[in-house]
Amino acid sequence: MTKSDKDQHITLRIAQEPKADELLARSPLAALVGMLLDQQVPMEWAFSGPYSLAQRMGGDDLDSHEIAAYDPEAFAELFTTKPALHRYPGSMAKRVQQLCQYLVAEYDGDASAVWAGVPDGAELRKRLNALPGFGTQKAQIFLALLGKQFGVRPKGWREAAGPYGEAGSHRSVADITGPESLAEVRAFKQHAKQAAKAAKRAAEQ
Question: What is this structure's pTM?
């Protein structure tokens, strides 16, 4: 996954750490795992996780088959060893393992097969939504990430990604291309969170 449809090398600035971003750019599984970890922690922390995990497993990439077959307790320890890979390392280790077990069962362990040759955006969203740990929002955000930064653009991909597919938006990790856009996305998320709290308070009054 190092090249887009235009045969150009992909450069990511999501983790804000060169080696972690390089892994995300070339490894479909690392990108999926980063997206899975992206909840209740800063985006850079989540998307640095795959690189840290690969290092702790003694390799330069992640392997679905290896993770799926890993002893659950030992795998959880890879997450909990300080510095922990997530705010909730135990539960996220379980989710990552479940994701890899699903990929092995449904796609022979090939993460890129989830989107390779997909006929349209609706089908891609359906496939992503079926992944363990991927709700509708996470599926749409990852779909937008694939379209905006990886060149995976089946017919109707923007519509399938919902608001996250909008051109020029700063709603999610799909829109992060450097420190400035990261700050803009973070500001958008903070504003949305405050608006949701205000709406909840108004409804309770």
Answer: 0.90
